[in-house]
Design goal:
Length: 207
């Protein structure tokens, strides 16, 4: 056999080892499980969409199952028909807890992030002045367009953070400001449920 014939026989074998064919690429792609990952992501999106944002409980409260919160359906304007300052908002919260509104005595002012969770530009309702506010229609209409939060300004405790349901912005407001309102909230589940068993056990000290 000549040298040229030997070279022609060897070249296909070397090419076969160095360059994977299409079948090998398909096999590798299938092994990566890309289709399975896509299906899993789609299932997560569907499951998330099935959880409603807010649920009217029919007792003056609104549940937020996504964030495990429960809101009072109406804000402070429904009671007072005028604005209240931050201290009056605290008193209003205390009065609801004394009455055990809707069967609960752990109502409180919301955090800024919790106030934001109610806001959405895709939602529309009206406040007491007929202006558009961006909260779900499930909440009582004709209320205030903002809410006090419990967040106090560091080193300047005469200010607290307030959230606007018109603009979706938070800002510092003097606690004596009377052109304000409050939406009360409570935790819908006990914090203990999120703790591992070993941490619960460490809380049981024996002497």
């Amino acid at each position: 056999m000549s040298d040229e014939e030997l070279k022609e026989e060897q070249e296909p074998e070397e090419g076969a080892e160095g360059i994977p064919d299409q079948d090998d690429e398909d096999a590798q792609t299938e092994w990566l499980g890309e289709e399975e990952w896509d299906d899993e992501e789609d299932e997560d999106e569907i499951a998330e969409q099935e959880v409603p944002s807010f649920i009217d409980n029919g007792d003056g409260t609104i549940s937020d199952p996504r964030n495990k919160l429960m809101w009072a359906k109406a804000d402070s304007y429904a009671v007072f028909k005028y604005g209240i300052n931050w201290f009056e908002a605290q008193d209003y919260c205390e009065s609801l807890n004394e009455k055990e509104f809707a069967g609960y005595d752990d109502w409180r002012l919301c955090s800024t992030e919790e106030a934001k969770s109610m806001f959405s530009f895709t939602k529309s309702s009206v406040d007491k002045d007929g202006s558009e506010i961006h909260i779900d229609e499930v909440f009582e209409p004709d209320g205030g367009h903002n809410t006090w939060t419990y967040v106090e300004k560091p080193d300047y405790h005469q200010y607290a953070e307030k959230f606007s349901y018109i603009t979706g912005n938070e800002f510092w407001e003097h606690k004596d400001n009377e052109y304000s309102h409050v939406r009360l909230v409570r935790d819908a589940s006990e914090r203990e449920e999120y703790e591992p068993e070993w941490r619960k056990d460490t809380k049981k000290f024996q002497r």
